[in-house]
Amino acid sequence: xxxxxxxxxxxxxxxxxxxxxxxxxxxxxxxxxxxxxxxxxxxxxxxxxxxxxxxxxxxxxxxxxxxxxxxxxxxxxxxxxxxxxxxxxxxxxxxxxxxxxxxxxxxxxxxxxxxxxxxxxxxxxxxxxxxxxxxxxxxxxxxxxxxxxxxxxxxxxxxxxxxxxxxxxxxxxxxxxxxxxxxxxxxxxxxxxxxxxxxxxxx
Length: 203
What we know:
Number of helices: 4
CATH class: Alpha Beta
Mean pLDDT: 86
Largest sheet: 8 strands, mixed
Helix content: 25-40%
CATH architecture: 3-Layer(aba) Sandwich
Radius of gyration: 19 Å
Number of strands: 8
C-alpha cells in the first residue's frame, strides 16, 4: 500500500471521531507545504510573425480544481489532495501563465497576454480545465490526467472560430510529490506545444 493510500485510509478511520473535520483543517492550515511549479514549453518557431494580438482568458474550472492543491481522485466519486504539496498559484492562474508563455516564446504573434490587461485583441483564447488530477489505478500505480478544452473567439463579434479538446495522461509508480509533478510536466511537454501551434494557426 502506498503512502498516499495509507494516509487516505487513516483519514477515513480518524474522521469517524466527532470533530475530525475541524482538527484536520487546523492541522493542514498550520503545516507548511512544499511548492511546485510547471514550465512552459514553446510551440513551433517556424513560420512568419503575425501582427495579431491574442488574449488568454482566466481558465474556468470547478471549485475542487480552482485551488493551489494537487487533486487526487481515489475513485470517480471521491476527491482529496496530495499531502504536503501545492502548486505555486491557484491552478487556473498556473494554466493561464503556461499557455501565455508557451505561445509567446514562439515569437510568432505580436502580442499575447492576459485578458484583463493589454491591447484590444484580434482573438481571445477561452480555456476550460476538465481534468488536472491524479487517479489511483487498481494496481496501486498513479495516473496523472490533464484535459483542457480550448476555444478561439473573434473579439469583434464574439464569433467562435474553433474549439478543440486536448488531453493526455501519464502513469507513475509512486505518490512522491516530485515524481507526480514530473509526470504532470511530461504530459505538458506534449500538450503545450500542440496547444500553442493550434492557437497560433487560428489567430
